[in-house]
Amino acid sequence: MNVLLLGSGGREHALAWKLAQSPLLDRLHAAPGNPGIADHATCHALDATDHAAVVAFCADQAIGLVVIGPEAPLVDGLGDTLRAAGIPVFGPSRAAAQLEGSKGFTKDLCARAGIPTAGYVRCTDRAAADAALAGFALPVVIKADGLAAGKGVVIATSATEAAAALDMMFDGGFGAAGAAVVIEAFLTGEEASLFALTDGVTTVAIGSAQDHKRVGEGDTGPNTGGMGAYSPARVLTPALEARAMAEIILPTVRAMADAGTPYSGVLYAGLMLTESGPQLIEYNARFGDPETQVLMPRIEGDLLPLLLATATGTLADVHPPRLVDDVALTVVLAADGYPGVPARGGAITGLDVAAATGALIFQAGTAEADGQLIAAGGRVLAVTATGASVTAARAMAYAAVDAVGFSTGFCRRDIGWREAARETG
Ligand code: AMP
Ligand code: GLY
User: Is 226 close to ligand 2, i.e. is its CB under 6 Å away?
Assistant: First the structure.
């Protein structure tokens, strides 16, 4: 089978690396891809916003499955266009991708289905938001309703901060994403992510992870897309994972089907493990980045049948995913300046030496110029290693990181600190 993978980040490099191992694969195509993805796929300058061009490409290349990596094409309805053209697609419809695209949509669904999540009020104007704020203790969480590149959440510790966040959102600070806001109660606990594949009826867990969202060591400084991650998240014990599946993920899949907008693809649940159990913080309608860079190395066997079965509604007929017990840990190397304006063009060397340590080097914002690999984005590489523990995996990952030459980049040196501290007790 020929597969088209859409996207250009470290997530897509990890997916390409895993898909390329499938005995069922004939040709892997990627668009736009990146130099790392090009090791496993033929990369094309195909514009995912041009739905007709994507459909034509699929017909031309006899594509049997399209795997959509990022959220934007999902929210833009590319899945619907491809399905209408009879092309199997891994990724939800536009209506189902609202689970990521609208925080208010997800909160309302949770309220209807009795899914544990922070108490909330959805507001579309400033006066209503001010009135609603009075009902919340501090800190209070204020979220732009729509996609805001992971930046649409403010945790306000004072009334002044809350007012400033509302001003910013209603004044268009996040564009249309802030035309509506969700105000919600602050939850305390440790965060963990749980990933599940669903075809709308059958749902199977496909691993857990914890990521480090802040740019600075000790989880300080501005939020990023993620500076590192590890899997599994041991804090999400098998018992808690079973609860999260039963109380959060399965009722969501049922509610989406009941609403006539069945969800198909990967459902990525951001959970807060509170004293009273797991609560939903948010959903993503896609794999995580860099979580995929730690999930893929843990999946035993062939990924392609799982993605294809998810896309074609036959997940009940395939073996559920099995994950190795080993821990995988990934360290993101970012360009100086990230998450602000990243330095572009810095040379990257030593990837062969780094890979020879046994680590996997996934590329994200990279490009080739005059035969030299250079930085071309915020997050540039994700260096992944596996081991019997976080401590072991992280020693191996940093050994590989140290073999990379990237003088205009940086990484956090403490990825996995929470879990490593638990391991050493
Ligand atoms: P989100 O984009 O919804 O994942 O929010 C980004 C981050 O804000 C989360 O990863 C949490 O760390 C934090 N956050 C979001 N909602 C809450 C909440 N209700 N209580 C505490 N922290 C939250
Ligand atoms: N690492 C967070 C995300 O993919 O949304």
Answer: yes
